[in-house]
Amino acid sequence: MESYSWIGVAIIVVVVIGLWMSIDTMIDGWREKDSKKVSRGLQQLRVNLITVALAVSVFRFASPSLSNLVFYQGVFMHLGQTLSLALAGVFAYASYRIFNNYRSNSMGFVYGALAIITAVSGVVLSTSFNAAALAQEFRFERISTLIPDDHGKLRFTPEEVAYNLMHGRATESGYTLEHEDIDAVDVNNGFGYVGPMVPDGTVGTWIRANSGYMVFDDLKSNEDPGRIRKVNQTQAFGEGMLLFDNLERHLYNTEWSAFYPEVYYLQLDPKVVDSYTAVAPKFEYRYRFPFASIPVWAGVVLVHSDGRTENLNTTEALADPRLKGKQINHRWYLRKLVDAQNYLDGFYAGWYVRPGQIKIPDLPGRSQMPFYFRGADNHDYAVIATEPPGTGAGLYRMYYLNVSTGARLVYEFAPKAGLSGPERAVDHAQIAGHTWAGTGQQGGGGERLLEPRYLVRDGKLFWMLSATPAAMSTVNSTIVVDAQTSTPVTYRGEQEFKTREIFFSWLNGAPDQAEVPASSSTDPDSIPATSDRLERLEQLLRTALQEVESLKGGSKK
After folding, report:
1. Nearest CA to 410 among 383, 445, 437, 433?
2. For helices 79-102 and 2-32, what crossing angle results, to 10°?
3. Is residue 54 classed as helix, strand or coil in its secondary structure?
4. Are 382 and 401 in contact (CB under 8 A)?
5. Which run of H or of E encompasses 125?
6. Closest Cα to residue 181, out of 40, 310, 278?
7. Cβ–Cβ contacts within 10 Å for residue 433, how many?
8. SS3 of 296, please?
9. Which of 195, 205, 216 is nearest to 174 (CA)?
10. Once rounded to an integer, what is the mean pLDDT over residues 215-235?
């Protein structure tokens, strides 16, 4: 969508050049005392201004979201480029005028050269200025340890698999579930996915309202029928609905001078579990001298199913008890901040390879960082693992965004740590005996590896991946790569966890049965800490009770 914002840049540049041409004609008329030329220039100026006003009005009526992208983001997202290109256009027009009147005047070459230099340097420099301004204003706080994840609320099912399962259960006639509409969110105080049921077909988008939500509760097992379910909740404004009941249109009409990367659907009323509210984190651009513009988190808009809207600024959103611990910032923002880190030392700092630079690795397939996870401190985080530039793929820094509070944190690995990042985890997880392929590859057999997810166990970093069939319709097995040894974890003699239960057994600290010898001792402390231990303890208790009963019987005699 950002490409549309360049339409705004082009429109602004054309308008500025047109206005300058009109003013220049008027100046010529005044200088030559030619009233007709003055009138012609004034007429051109009026036509240009009326055309711009009509264009803005038509855009605003037809699509407030596209209008925002073109005219608001198109100006402020690319403020430096817009100013430099407009100035380059003025120089180019001046060069044309000189050559048209005098043909070989040297000033024509000067203005022509200025046009080229201004356009090229402005586009290159303004991008660097924006990144430097963003990195310097919103710094990350260094932390001394990795943030542990909450194992009880772990992201077990990858988004691709969850969507395919949800879509397969979305059987309501006239409605569908779009992949881009589902999000990883808090579901019943755990991990899950929620997506709206949107009208299907061109006619349906005009005459129907979103009928409710498909909910995927990832804490429940595959066999639990309540794992995937439909929640009936008709929405007055929704995604996929046209024209005046479209959710994006409603958001941009609520506050036009902001933009909304995505909408979450969250449970905000603990007393009513099956009630969801559209939560749209909003961002605005802030000007920074000389011509940089940076996105800033500006709060959140809540859109209730009946159409009632609450527009909260940052202070109000953080103070609202309904939103405590909820995702009111956006994972997109972390990506913007981390992308800008190479310019932390100045606008020129990202132009050459030097110590301290980072890169965000490209992962195979659709799932890219930042990934969402629930921390052991009961906060929601977005996380990005970074590597040094070049061909190296070792871990350098781990960046976090607390999507509840907006706190920005970074953990830097020791230079000699030599830990593998998520990119290498995909390679290391392709263990012998399997022909797995990345999700980005088309065709061919074998399984797909999805989402190298952040996992911390006993203070150590691991990467958790899911192996799925090519259709990505279920999780065949889970592979956990040790970031320190760059090898898959071996548990009970296997390098993959064949079931969810076996994986959580390892995750929660159960010892490897393949390495624990069987014990004939009746000492409970010597019995393996697994389900076998529970059975053995039950046997010991039954034996003890029988002995007690036997002793009681003997004493009576």
Report:
1. 383
2. 40
3. helix
4. yes
5. helix 106-137
6. 278
7. 6
8. strand
9. 205
10. 92
| Cβ-contact 95, 284 below 8 angstroms | no
Q: Give how far Cα 256 sits from Cα of 5, 260, 368, 471, Å.
A: 15, 10, 29, 41
Q: 510: which 2 tokens?
A: 């159960």
| CA 304 centroid distance within chain | 23
Structure tokens at 21: 């041409």
The values of phi and psi at residue 210, to 5°, are -55, 130
Summarize pLDDT for 178-206 with one digit per residue, the tens.
999 999 999 988 999 999 999 988 888 88
Per-position DSSP letters for 425-493, written without gaps between them: HHHHTS-TT---EETT--S-SS-EEEEEEEEEETTEEEEEEEEE-TT--S--EEEEEETTTTEEPPBTT
pLDDT of residue 442: 41
DSSP 358-384: -BPPPPSSS--SPEEEEBTTS-EEEEE
The CA distance from 125 to 341, in Å, is 16
DSSP state of 258: S
By CB neighbour count within 10 A (0-12 exposed, 13-18 middle, 19+ buried), where does 49 fall? middle
CA distance 85 to 122: 7
**Paired tokens of 314:** 């940052």
Predicted confidence (pLDDT) per residue in 515-539, tens digit: 544 443 444 444 444 444 555 555 5
| Cβ–Cβ < 8 Å for 248, 65 | yes
Pairing state between β 487-488 and 380-386: unpaired
Amino acid at 438: G
Q: How far is residue 171's CA from residue 176's CA, in Å, rounded to a whole number?
A: 8
Give the residue-averaged pLDDT of 370-398. 88
Q: Which of 112, 248, 229, 267 is nearest to 180 (CA)?
A: 248
Phi, psi for residue 386 in degrees, rounded to 5: -120, 155
SS3 sequence, 474-535? Answer: CCCEEEEEECCCCEECCECCECCECCHHHHHHHHCCCCCHHHCCCCCCCCHHHCCCCHHHHH
What distance in Å separates the CA atoms of residue 291 and residue 122, rounded to the nearest whole number? 10
Mean of pLDDT values over 425-430: 88
Q: Angle at Cα 228 formed by Cα 277 and Cα 333, nearest 5°?
A: 45
Whole-number Cα distances in Å, 205 to 64, 242, 250, 414? 18, 5, 15, 54
Q: What is the 3-state secondary structure (H, E, C) of 128-184?
A: HHHHHHHHHHCCCEECCCCCCECHHHCCCCCHHHHHHHHHHHCCCCCEECCHHHCEE
Contact 375, 334 (CB under 8 A): no
Q: What is the dihedral of CA 498, 504, 505, 510, to 10 degrees?
A: 130
Indicate the pTM of the whole model. Answer: 0.82
Could you give the angle at the alpha carbon of 554 between the alpha carbons of 551 and 557, nearest 5°?
155
The first and second tokens of residue 213, run together, are 């939500």
